[in-house]
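Section 5: illustrative case.
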């Protein structure tokens, strides 16, 4: 294994200490099943720049990516759904949807990770000082699982409600929400036990975002379900579901992470909250007591396009630049309950490993700089980031078609 990169010039440079315990990156493998080689390359690069958490998003409406013995259809069926068209996504760079459709046959990957694949990724991450934090998103974003096991979701024959399922954007009703049945409860228990078997890290992320509570409310039998589950309002069923998952995890010594949506409805001060939802997320955090990780989508969702990218990108708007990241004030990151920062890349339009690396770099270097240098001189930092990015390109490590191997230099765990 040969060294292909010079000493790191961005992030954990000599003499720096980060005040953030959680230096995170989230990769979405539910919408695109990124290859094991891609995940390992991302881990190597993230480690080089002092990241110590990889949140691995493994389930969503578009796919289920690991084996659960009691539910074989999750990998026989839910892992092999056709690629979604994402027709309800509108904040896109001009030709994103058309390009993704044209490129999917050559680029896009489906399927699941075997137990051996997961063990390989976990071991690789451990060698690089990175904790893999698996995510199973519940009780919403469960359409793939419900397609495989219809008894988990909306009762057969019950029409979907009309109108948007979210207050601030159009969100069509769909059968993506677990129902408060014994079948769904048993499913949650089995899945959490399986995650514990596969992933040794102390944290498991259980989602809790974007649950369309109106769907529960539209069930004529919802009062009986609420009485059975001990809640007074349909939206409180979300907390019931999350408690089922948390009980299993904590009985096995695991800690729970959630998206900020959950802390509105689940009064659990022990959960770690990933605060993503812009002003809404920070308002939720202000009214809660949990420790949190700052992951504001306006600055840290790197599936939003880079306006200065060398090649046109497929992705969301508004754009985020290196300078945006370096100059943002982020007063929330100074809060006494803030334990870290996290960048995220969602894969609706990120079709393969090279797409992923192109969305991450050079902007992930700016995130690293903020993790290790909270108040950078933006102009000076931008010069070092440009130099580091050039070194990565020269070494070929931002192209999965090369055989270049990253050797982490001066990584800090």
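Designed sequence:
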């Amino acid at each position: 294994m040969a060294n292909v990169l010079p000493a790191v010039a961005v992030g954990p440079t000599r003499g720096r200490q980060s005040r953030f315990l959680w230096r995170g990156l989230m990769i979405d493998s539910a919408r695109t099943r990124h290859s094991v080689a891609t995940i390992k390359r991302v881990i190597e690069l993230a480690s080089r720049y002092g990241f110590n958490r990889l949140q691995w998003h493994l389930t969503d409406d578009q796919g289920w990516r690991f084996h659960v013995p009691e539910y074989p259809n999750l990998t026989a069926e839910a892992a092999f759904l056709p690629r979604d068209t994402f027709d309800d996504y509108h904040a896109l760079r001009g030709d994103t949807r058309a390009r993704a459709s044209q490129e999917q046959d050559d680029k896009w990957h489906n399927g699941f990770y075997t137990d051996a694949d997961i063990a390989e990724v976990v071991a690789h991450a451990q060698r690089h000082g990175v904790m893999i934090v698996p995510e199973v998103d519940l009780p919403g974003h469960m359409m793939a699982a419900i397609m495989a096991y219809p008894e988990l979701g909306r009762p057969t024959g019950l029409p979907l409600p009309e109108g948007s399922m979210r207050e601030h954007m159009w969100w069509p009703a769909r059968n993506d929400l677990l129902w408060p049945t014994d079948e769904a409860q048993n499913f949650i228990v089995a899945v959490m036990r399986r995650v514990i078997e596969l992933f040794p890290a102390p944290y498991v992320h259980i989602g809790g975002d974007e649950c369309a509570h109106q769907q529960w409310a539209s069930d004529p039998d919802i009062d009986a379900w609420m009485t059975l589950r001990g809640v007074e309002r349909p939206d409180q069923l979300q907390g019931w579901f999350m408690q089922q998952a948390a009980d299993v995890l904590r009985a096995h010594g695991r800690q729970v992470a959630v998206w900020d949506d959950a802390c509105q409805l689940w009064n659990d001060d022990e959960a770690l909250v990933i605060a993503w939802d812009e002003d809404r997320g920070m308002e939720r955090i202000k009214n809660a007591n949990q420790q949190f990780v700052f992951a504001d989508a306006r600055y840290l969702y790197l599936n939003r396009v880079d306006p200065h990218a060398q090649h046109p990108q497929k992705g969301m708007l508004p754009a985020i630049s290196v300078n945006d990241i370096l100059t943002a004030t982020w007063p929330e990151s100074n809060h006494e309950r803030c334990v870290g920062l996290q960048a995220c890349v969602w894969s609706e339009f990120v079709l393969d490993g090279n797409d992923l690396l192109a969305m991450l770099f050079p902007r992930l270097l700016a995130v690293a700089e903020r993790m290790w240098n909270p108040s950078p001189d933006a102009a000076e930092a931008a010069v070092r980031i440009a130099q580091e990015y050039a070194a990565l390109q020269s070494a070929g490590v931002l192209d999965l078609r090369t055989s270049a191997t990253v050797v982490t230099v001066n990584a800090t765990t």
